[in-house]
Design goal:
This protein is about 40% helix and about 15% strand. It is of the alpha+beta class and about 80 residues long. A hairpin with a 5-residue loop joins β2 and β3. α1 runs antiparallel to α2. It is globular, with a radius of gyration of 13 Å. The N and C termini lie far apart (about 35 Å).
């Protein structure tokens, strides 16, 4: 049996799943999912930006800011 390095039931993995959705996730959605304080959510997003993942910040139709992971990296490359 091979041991996997991924931990599918962590708060971090839950946030990454939210960020992979087509419309991403708002800060409020991340807070609701994790129970983290807003500054902790922003710090997590900073960590995602510093990793090899391309994070996109965009405004939804309702005016709320959402973050999502680009499926193909910078500018769809």
């Amino acid at each position: 049996m091979t041991k996997s390095n991924s931990r599918p039931n962590t708060k971090s993995s839950a946030v990454r799943r939210l960020l992979r959705r087509r419309h991403g996730a708002t800060l409020d959605e991340i807070i609701e999912t994790t129970g983290w304080q807003p500054h902790s959510c922003r710090a997590f997003l900073t960590g995602v930006r510093k990793s090899d993942v391309w994070l996109i910040k965009e405004e939804r139709a309702d005016g709320r800011t959402a973050y999502r992971i680009a499926p193909d990296g910078p500018a769809g490359s």
